[in-house]
Specification:
This protein has helices at about 10-20, 35-40, 65-70, 95-105, 120-130, 170-175, 185-195; strands spanning about 50, 60, 110-115, 135-140, 160, 180-185. By secondary structure, it is of the alpha/beta class.
Length: about 200
């Protein structure tokens, strides 16, 4: 389930490859499909989520609207939300909770940087991930368009890519920028699903 539009051919094939089963049967649901942009657009800078539309363009979506939309949806079988935003649902696998559990098992680091698609998302990201290191920075770098990286990450112990849109190629790009380790929400979610499905 994407908060944007289907098909998410920029996500699903790589996700299934990490899971280790590219022939896994699945159905895709896009939450903004057939919905006017005026209905789902963010109301303020603390309400911004980002996803991809079918044509490859960027969708800016209201977190509050997604919360409401998820409360109305019925989901059969194993349902995975392809968004790292903070949600609460007992019917979905939520990447935020999977990632939070992953970091909770780690010792607290000294320096970490969280990468998000849009600058407005940094304030929420810093609140959510403050516990992973004594000093946490946040920078914006879009997985959906050409972006340039002008920040020195060489001393970071961890760079976390906080969007399912970040690919394994993005991980490699950031690995060239730091001596620390780089992990994406996509990889953490896929490894969780691999353990669940095998």
């Amino acid at each position: 389930m994407t908060i944007g539009e289907t098909p998410r051919d920029d996500v699903i094939p790589e996700l299934l490859s990490i899971v280790g089963n590219t022939n896994l049967a699945y159905n895709e649901i896009g939450l903004i499909e057939n919905v006017e942009e005026e209905v789902y657009k963010p109301r303020d800078e603390n309400d911004v989520l980002v996803s991809r539309k079918r044509d490859g363009s960027i969708a800016r979506i209201s977190h509050r609207w997604i919360v409401q939309k998820l409360s109305q949806l019925e989901c059969e079988g194993l349902c995975v939300l392809l968004c790292t935003g903070e949600f609460d649902s007992d019917r979905l696998i939520l990447p935020y909770k999977v990632v939070d559990s992953f970091f909770s098992a780690m010792p607290k680091l000294n320096h970490a940087t969280v990468i998000v698609p849009e600058k407005e998302q940094c304030s929420n990201a810093l609140k959510r991930w403050a516990k992973i290191a004594k000093r946490v920075n946040c920078i914006s770098f879009s997985p959906y368009r050409e972006s340039t990286l002008s920040v020195d990450l060489s001393q970071e112990q961890l760079v976390y890519l906080d969007c399912i849109g970040f690919t394994l190629k993005h991980e490699e790009l950031f690995k060239h920028q730091t001596k620390g380790f780089v992990v994406s929400a996509r990889r953490i979610l896929a490894n969780y699903l691999r353990n669940l499905l095998t």
